[in-house]
Amino acid sequence: MAEGSRHAHQRGRQVRCRRPFCVSGHRWWRPAQVGRTREQQHFEYDNAAVERVYKKLDLRIIPAFWILYFLCSAIRSNIGISQTMNKDVGHDLITVLGMTPADVSQTLSLFYVSYIIFDFPSNLIMSKVGPRAWMARIVIATGIVGSCFAAVQKPWSAKLLRFLLGAVIAGMWPGMSLYLTHFYPPSRTGKRIGMYFTAAQVSAAVVGLISAGFQLMDGVGGLTGFRWMFLLYGLVTIVVGVVLLWWLPDKPLPPGEVRERSGLMKFLPAVPEALTGEDAVIHYHELRRVYHMKHWTLKDLTYVLLDWRLWPLLFMYFGVVGVGIGTQLYGGIIIGSINPNFTGIQISLLFAPIWIMDLIAILIFTPLSDRFHSRRAILFSIAVCIQITGLLTTTFALKNSWARYGGLLMVGFGLGPTVPICMAWTNEIFQGRHGEVGVAAATALVSGLGNLGSIVTTYALYTGWAADSAPGPHRFRKSNLVMIGILCISLLSSLVNMVLLRIFGTKRSRHGAAGDDSASSFDDGAAKREVEERGLAGCLLAQEINRKHAVPHGQTCHQVFEPLPPGGLLSLLG
């Protein structure tokens, strides 16, 4: 045992605290109880019990989120690959509809116009009517609009459907992030966001691979290959949306409360609670450290909008999502410009590895962003620098087409973790400061207004920039350089946010809608267990407790423990 820990263990036997605490039949004295009211008492459980609870939640929520996000992402992005499907026989989307480059750019960008308009109100509605019903509504409506793309005949109909698609899918991405905060503390959300965000990467890869199969269906039943793709993806998504009504749980209730079936709930099927019995009790006491269900008002919403911490996150999202959408929608065209001899099927097959690299990066970075959540800005910045390097390679390695393609793979790798890290950081900051309304508003504004970057890349760049899309060795060079510029905005914003948070912190707003002002990042059970897993010395933890909790003047936390259990101070902290 370290010298500091041994002294802490010995001093811990001196004075008894007033309030006992019971865990697994043993009465231990907890530092978190010192100076707290009865309502502020925190319950602690052993790690195995808590991890069991979150594994059950993972099995109930994450697979459903993964499937719905996979399908909705495919419907949103398959218009990109449809521009090159069966192009050699004139059955690609652009040729069939007689679209000009301006039509293509307008069609792609209209999705983000409606998305930005409806994203914020959609997320606020979800916080009021309940996540299960609203999420199912989003998925069903997305499937309906997506399947209608199989019937487009003119450019105006494609533009109309893209606008409608953005309107109905708005609120899905920030809504999923908001949904997680009902079940997980902030220090656990980054990994979960990354887990279901991989669906977008797999979807992008699969769209490229499966589109090769749809191209072989060209002419079957009188439909072109891209029409079959739109139709089948849409129908499957509708079915999944209906199934979600019987699967996704609603917000968890305090143990013993019965869910009221009033309003819209009367017309929806009853769904088993996510947790029952002891698991529900453990989860309730774990989550109430950081989440407090309280109805919010417009005044609470105003304070969220005036919080300066929102804007650096928005600019971080602006750059990375703009590059991500640009790569997703124009990746096939960029590959075709690298080597004009590639066929449509070859382009589809080369498009998929970009998103496999994206997936690998998510699996590497997002667990690290939770474990080192105070260093999210550093991880985000590393990923952005990888994207910048990849774009420079794609732009200037003119003598080697495979090197240019390798640059696209680097862009895909760098893209992967940036959006999950940005959303997890938003959750962490605004849940602590403003409660549920903070998460609902901040995630919607970050993902909504941040998609202005998508409008820039879809409307103003690549095919939308006539002078830059002319055939030749320098095709798309200016567009790539603009993408590098907006990535620099993201990089600078993350570093500025990190510095400002170090100076001003993220203490709970005195106007916030959340309840218990005593909550802090150290009160997050997951954060405490993370400290234990890192094996920090007992005295360091004791100093943190002295700083965070109201220990009587003149005493240290060592002096308010009764005899410690085996494992000393570290085991006492759970």
Your description of this structure?
The protein has helices at 3-11, 47-81, 93-97, 101-129, 131-148, 155-169, 172-181, 186-216, 225-244, 277-287, 298-305, 310-338, 344-371, 376-396, 401-415, 418-434, 436-449, 452-460, 477-504, 525-533, 538-548, 568-572, and strands at 21-23, 26-28. The protein is 66% helix and 1% strand. The chain is globular. It starts with a helix and ends with a helix. By secondary structure, the protein is mainly alpha-helical. It is built from 22 helices and two strands. A hairpin with a 2-residue loop joins strand 1 (21-23) and strand 2. The chain has a single domain (48-253, 280-288, 304-504), classed as MFS general substrate transporter like domains (Growth Hormone, Chain: A). Strands 1-2 form a two-stranded antiparallel ribbon. Residues 1-42, 512-523 and 530-574 have low confidence and may be disordered.
Terminal residue distance: 18 Å
- Sheet-strand content, in percent, reads under 5%
CATH topology: Growth Hormone, Chain: A
Binned, the helix content reads 55-70%
Number of domains: 1
CATH class: Mainly Alpha
Q: What name goes with the CATH superfamily?
A: MFS general substrate transporter like domains
Topology:
Layout: H1 3-11, E1 21-23, E2 26-28, H2 47-81, H3 93-97, H4 101-129, H5 131-148, H6 155-169, H7 172-181, H8 186-216, H9 225-244, H10 277-287, H11 298-305, H12 310-338, H13 344-371, H14 376-396, H15 401-415, H16 418-434, H17 436-449, H18 452-460, H19 477-504, H20 525-533, H21 538-548, H22 568-572
Antiparallel strand pairs: 1-2
Helix pairs in contact: 2-5, 2-8, 2-9, 2-10, 2-12, 4-5, 4-6, 4-7, 4-17, 4-18, 5-6, 5-7, 5-9, 7-8, 7-16, 7-17, 8-9, 8-13, 8-16, 11-17, 12-13, 12-15, 12-16, 12-17, 12-18, 12-19, 13-15, 14-15, 14-16, 14-19, 16-17
